[in-house]
């Protein structure tokens, strides 16, 4: 990994310092700029401004509403609204060129359901539909009619998001948020936070790699997989660690006709189209905390586990050829796979925005807005994200999400 060339901030004091400038940090910066306008005094500190190894850049860039918790469904519904309206929202910040279109492919997610999982799946579909989602449960016959290339012999059915689910341009989202935030007066600096100074139960300043100390009124931890490193600087602890996820792009000798969704197999393997190619991945056997700088791909995962699962579920995937692969990190919340959002009860100006366990990209519009509301208004104004509060962590009271990929 290349050694970054860090720069110094232009000021020594800001009302808000955000540690991490990828999609959660930049969404927070964007929403703060919209709420504060010219009053915004916000610094975003990003240790890798190329974002080469950020979870945002290495994400599979998808969004779904098929969750078991109502708040996660609502978060994604706002995310879809934000993605669909992104070009219009960003237009004021692109005066000399068109605002970005995130290329949302609304093909949906298709969860394969085992015979013994039918009842729970139907309950989740009912919940999602009661909240306005367009999920439908399909028994094996109708499922085969709709997707004739799918092997349904061992399935009890499938849950398909017929609208408002799919995949999009993750870096387009990040770059648009950054551009809007910076155009609105938010400062970004290529640097790394190496320590925090605390006085009287508050963070008073952040120390940077270049030697400066930057005073702050609020410190936002948006450091992704490195969230625990930042928490530890304040003497705090959260159960968040980097977990490796391997992604493989492959070509198939046999094309898949029609509108192919993102298929989630019983094995946990997913696959979706990417133009004439396909993207796939799974929860690997070596799942567990990884080193922060470990992005090595275990290619045996494709040969030993992913390809057999693909061939079983989609028999047309008999002859495949891997064209590209990469490894990204989930900022994995080992307690309950849900985000941690809110101020610490004792270090009162330390804000968590961490632990989204692979959902951070799709949840970033709502989470950034929520964090800005807590900072500016002192309480949630739109979606109530109280279930994501930090207080559940030391109490060991998980807020579980069943639909984790």
TrEMBL record:
Keywords: Oxidoreductase
The FAD dependent oxidoreductase domain, residue ranges: 15-374
A UniProt-annotated Pfam family: DAO
Domain of life: Bacteria
UniProt keyword annotation of Repeat present: no
InterPro entries: FAD-dep_OxRdtase (IPR006076), FAD/NAD-bd_sf (IPR036188)
Keyword Oxidoreductase applies: yes
Stored PANTHER family: FAD-DEPENDENT OXIDOREDUCTASE DOMAIN-CONTAINING PROTEIN 1 (PTHR13847:SF287), SARCOSINE DEHYDROGENASE-RELATED (PTHR13847)
Listed name of the protein: Glycine/D-amino acid oxidase-like deaminating enzyme
Species name: Pseudochelatococcus lubricantis
